[in-house]
Structure formats: structure tokens, C-alpha cells
Amino acid sequence: MKQATIQNSNGMTLSAIDYGCAMTELTAPDREGNLESVILKYGDVSQYLENPIYLGSVVGRIAGRIRNAEIDSVALSPSEAPHHIHGGDKGITARYWEMDAEERCIQFTYVSPNGEEGYPGNVFFKVIYELTDDNELIVTMTAETDELTWVNLNHHNYFNLGGRSTIHDHMLTLPADSVGVLDAESLPTGELRDVSGTPFDFRDKKAVREALESGDEAIERADGLDHPFILKDEPIRLHDPVSGRTMTIETNQPVMVVYTGNFLSEATPVTLDGRQKHSAICLEAQAFPDAPNHPHIATSIELKPGELYHSRTVYRFSASSH
């Protein structure tokens, strides 16, 4: 396993490994200028070889669940039987990628062969992590294929901007008028719910705690947030009032899946600083989950020869003085 580290002129650092493009460290300054990790990480890098929560990794070929592990009569691996989740048993996460590091940039490439996890087509994936002197992390993910296939990637960092035990007091601003309705198996039903008057309304900044403790049936069923929000073309913001850190997100993707680490207590090794449920939040920019089964509300995730899949998400870090 190889690891690379890059740094910007302000001292922010990013480390990643060639296994699943997993980001193993990302530091950002607080209001006092102290640089600390803003993502959860394992205590030992070798633990990323068994990473049941996809910590810091790129997820695909398709992130999320595909009902009955089938698209257009093509059978995918039923990695959460009878459904398909996060690209299959290994997907593109539990794979070694070619990795090249420069001063401010780490680039990964992987060729997923025809038939891998049931997917048609040989697909060339490229992932780039870049740190700018404006304290931006830019994540760019592209894919090209030689046969019609499907691609919907996301990046699976678990953010905690203050290093405390939960993200309950993090303030979230999410420009979304609607959220996908999920069934008991966390699969979209094909319905969209207007967020107005519900705990899913983050259009005006509010504490994550308000949703988690709302008693809403859909949130209780998922043990937290694990829902796809339909984005408007406006920035997303996550703010920690204690450290002063703010993360502003801009993306070209239509959906943000918000996941509040609902199963960390069940799946996380104790060496992850003893982290428990709701100790981090994933903000996963992607297309709508299970998109092929919901063409009336979802952008197509088909990728054809000659086309380029292109996902670009910018995470901008700043810190307020009060």
C-alpha cells in the first residue's frame, strides 16, 4: 500500500492511499489557526484494507443501492442481497489504484474490466484530489467506457469539523426544496417530499441535532439522516460554532446524500478514536440513488462510448473569529 501527502501554503495537509483512493488525513485551521483533522480516520493505515464503512473512499461504479441488483436485465452482484450496494462486493473501493502525487495534487487511475461486479464495459476511472492556497479541496472524478454502462460515483469522507463526540451542534445549510422518500430497506420509493415544515428543511441554517431529535418517522427508521436531497444551484455549508470552522461545498452534481454516521457504533473498529453513532456527517454529491428505476425524477446515469462522466466538488474551508 502506498501513501502520499500534499500541503498548501497555509499548512493544510491531505494524505491518501492507493487503496480505494481513501483519504486518510485532511487538516484545516480553526479560528485560532490550529490545524486539526476534519475527517474521521483509522488509527492504523492498514485498517483501510477492511473498511466496512467506506471511510474516506471513492464509491462506485454506482454509489448507493440498486433495487434487486438489476438494471435493464443486467444482473449486478447482490452485495446487500437481494439488492446491490456501493458498486458490489468490492466495487472500485476495495481495489488498488495507480497513484501519482505532485506538490498540490494526487491523481488516481483504475481500469474496471468488463463484467466486474456484473457491470458491462471496460471503464477508465480517474480521480484527482487537489489542495489550493485558498484552502479548497477539489475532488474531480471522471470515467470513460467502451460499452454502454452506468456510473454514479461519490466520495465518502466522514466530516467532524470540531473533533467532538457528535455532530449534533454542527450547523447545516442545505439549499434543497425536496428530499427523496425511502422505504424500509433504504431504497427510494420514487416519491419526493417537500421539505417545508419538516425536519428535512435546512434551507435556513440550523443544527443537525434538530433533525436527529425531531421524532420524524423517516428519520427514526434510518436512525438518523441517510437521505437524498435535490440540490438547487447554491452552496452547501457546514459550520462548527466551537472551532469556528466552516466548510462550503459547491458541486456539479444534482443530489446530496446526507448521512449522519448512523451505524458507526456497529461497524467501526475501536481504533477509530472510539467514534460512535452520529459522530460525523457524510455529504455525498452524486446523482439520485437507484436512478435507473426512477427515470421520472432522476437524471440518467448511463455512460456511453465517447462520453465523459465528470463529477467535480469543491470543499472550501474557512474559520470565523467568533
UniProtKB/TrEMBL annotation:
Keyword Isomerase among record annotations: yes
Short name of one Pfam family: Aldose_epim
EC code: 5.1.3.3
InterPro entries, A to Z: Aldose_1-epimerase, Aldose_1/G6P_1-epimerase, Gal_mutarotase_sf_dom, Galactose_mutarotase-like, GH-type_carb-bd
Record's SUPFAM superfamilies? Galactose mutarotase-like
Q: What reaction does this enzyme carry out catalytically?
A: alpha-D-glucose = beta-D-glucose
For this UniProt record, the keywords arranged alphabetically read as follows: Carbohydrate metabolism, Isomerase
Q: In which pathway does it act?
A: Carbohydrate metabolism; hexose metabolism
Coiled-coil ranges from the UniProt annotation: none
Q: Which PANTHER family match?
A: ALDOSE-1-EPIMERASE, GALACTOSE MUTAROTASE
- Give the similarity note: Belongs to the aldose epimerase family.
**Protein name as annotated:** Aldose 1-epimerase
Q: Give the species.
A: Exiguobacterium marinum
Lineage of source species: Bacteria, Bacillati, Bacillota, Bacilli, Bacillales
